[in-house]
Design brief:
Layout: E1 3-8, E2 14-19, H1 24-39, H2 53-63
């Protein structure tokens, strides 16, 4: 099961958690959600995370 949890606190800080997504699927889901939020005039600063070696290996195996 895939699930996206979005939390917005009283100060307007937003956090998103993508549960059940693997590799590239997570990136695509985040981009799609950010587009929807943008249409609603809600902005989120993009954060980048360094991918672990394990995640890079999983993504490589998925693409083969």
């Amino acid at each position: 099961m895939k699930l996206v949890k979005v939390k917005i606190d009283q100060n307007g800080n937003m956090s998103m958690d993508f549960i059940g997504f693997k590799g590239r699927q997570c990136d695509i889901a985040e981009r799609n959600l950010l587009k929807i939020l943008d249409n609603l005039k809600i902005k989120k600063e993009e954060e980048t995370y360094k991918k672990t070696d394990q995640l890079l290996l999983e993504e490589q195996l998925e693409s083969e």
